[in-house]
Amino acid sequence: MSEHRAPVLSVRPGLTRALVAALLLLAGLMAPIAGNVPAHAAPSGPATAGTGDDTVRAQLRADLDAYLQERGAAEHISGASLSVNLPGSRSTIDVTAGTTTFGGSVPVRPDSLWQIGSNTKAFTSVLLLQLEAEHRLSIDDPLGKWLPQYPQWRDVTIRRLLNMTSGIPTYDDTPAWYADYAANPHTYFSKERLVGYVLDAPATTGWNYSNTNYVLAEMIIEKVTGHSYQDQIYRRLIDPLGLRDLYYRPDVYPPSVTSREPAGYYFNHEFPLTQFIGRDASRDTLSWARAAGAVMGTMSDLSRWERVLYFGHLLPAQQQAELESLVSLTTGQPITSTSATDPLGFGLGIAQTTAPELGTLWIYEGEGFAHRVVHATFPDSGLIITLGLNSATEDANDQITTLTKTVYETLQAAGWVHPRPAAATSGT
User: Is residue 17 over pLDDT 70?
Assistant: First the structure.
């Protein structure tokens, strides 16, 4: 474990709505803002990175620049970072635009670090699935087996924590939590304190996004292994995979990390933190997010993680299938896959949608108080797009998935999006 690399990633109150809004937009149930999606020629045929590489990079940079020019004021963003990961290529295509501060002059760089928010949840799910593969737990174990201190949830299984059907409410939508965070954004929130905000809260029904689920998952990982979550995410995932630009720290990050982090602006008018509007929240604590959203990293390393997550051998076949097992966001019931009639699905810390013109893809938008980060993985082509913007804004203003679609269209027009050979479609 690389303790000295103390990293962090974030999730924010209302991340529920950020994720759902992203899925709805791509599923074609919300109208994207017009004027930012350029028309592209039809793809000329299969290509790989290196074929017209400079031309495509220039077009991608133009896409980012156009978005910043059009949406910069509305979303209070000054910078963007993009990484494109193509199957069969050992390197990523990394493009940035804008500046690290609103109104500033220091450019965003490809090695800039971003709070990836709830994209962190996949790491937590994988840790639990690895422990299951080692026969140290089952994801169908009830909480009463591992966390008997919470008898009100004793029959809730680990699986239901991870797929958001537990009925346990999220702590970061309670008045008490808002008040405590507002009083001091550098407050340290322990796991027990976060869970304590909802001990007596009424149960939710169906599919309901809850960060409490993933704090409880963090507790289970620590109970089973006898080691901290931070130790396990480095020892099992970050270090073995060589992800040198991904970090986890459940609190304030040190200057060695934040010196590479763009400012991140809280610009959400929907929640009771209006005194923070326009404030740089990038250096505040991420202890409130923990295993639900406190990872930080470059877009390049995040795209490499997504490659291993969906196309590598990170998990045995059984656990990979469990990771990708879906429930419908509409009904909360299991579904084999999303579709045009039921386009929104949630797995174990991952999400899937079926969208017009894009097909079925894995996509997750993580958002905290500072940054928004989306990853989109296309199983049919093997293409992975990761994208970061430096503000947290309300759903009505959040058009990051529109920009993701623009990037996809640019790559498609360049002939860089094409079906993978059938033998390469395995997700394990």
Answer: no
Highest mean pLDDT among 2-16, 37-51, 331-345: 331-345
Residue 415 lies in a domain: no
Span of 50-59, 219-228, 234-243, 329-338 with lowest mean pLDDT: 50-59
Confidence of residue 357 (pLDDT cuts 50, 70, 90): confident
Q: What is the 3-class SS of the chain, one letter each residue?
A: CCHHHCCCECCCCCHHHHHHHHHHHHCCCCCCCCCCCCCCCCCCCCCCCCCCHHHHHHHHHHHHHHHHHHHHHHHCCCEEEEEEECCCCCCCEEEEEEECCCCCCCECCCCCCEECHHHHHHHHHHHHHHHHHCCCCCCCCEHHHHCCCCHHHCCCEHHHHHCCCCCCCCHHHCHHHHHHHHHCCCCCCCHHHHHHCCCCCCCCCCCCCCHHHHHHHHHHHHHHHCCCHHHHHHHHHHCCCCCCCEEECCCCCCHHHHCCCCCCEEECCCCCCHHHCCEECCCCCCCCCHHHCCEEECHHHHHHHHHHHHHCCCCCHHHHHHHCCEEECCCCCEECCCCCCCCEEECCCCEEEEECCCEEEEEEEEECCCCEEEEEEECCCCEEEEEEECEEECHHHCCHHHHHHHHHHHHHHCCCCCCCCHHHCCCC
User: Per residue in 166-195, pLDDT tens?
Assistant: 999 999 999 999 999 999 999 999 999 999
Residue 315 has pLDDT above 70, yes or no: yes
Residue 153 sits in a domain whose CATH number is 3.40.710.10
Structural domain span for residue 189: 3-32+110-271+281-380
What pLDDT score does 22 carry?
A: 75
How many domains are contained in the chain? Answer: 1
Q: Is residue 407 part of a domain?
A: no
Q: Is 101 part of a structural domain of the chain?
A: no
Q: Is 123 inside any structural domain? A: yes
pLDDT in tens, 39-51: 333 332 333 344 4
